[in-house]
Design goal:
Helices cover about 70% and strands about 0% of the residues. The chain is built from five helices and no strands. Helix 1 crosses helix 3, helix 1 packs parallel to helix 4 and helix 2 packs across helix 3. The two termini are about 15 Å apart. The relative contact order is 0.19.
């Protein structure tokens, strides 16, 4: 699975639309849109940090990722 699909999976698990998701992480809306469409590739470490923050702040369960 590409990283863009993993971003969408994380967003869906958090129950957020793109605007809420981009505001939550402080990432421009267009960037999130391009990641999900796989027009742009996000660094792996950014994706891991997003999952980590979502888990720490109880937006998702660690079990959900597996």
């Amino acid at each position: 699975m590409g990283r863009g699909k993993k971003v969408k999976e994380l967003r869906d698990m958090m129950g957020m639309n793109r605007r809420e998701f981009s505001d939550y992480f402080g990432i421009p809306y267009r960037t999130v849109q391009d990641w999900e469409a796989e027009k742009r590739e996000l660094p792996d470490y950014v994706l891991r940090l997003m999952w980590y923050r979502a888990a720490i702040e109880k937006k998702i369960s660690i079990i959900d990722k597996q």
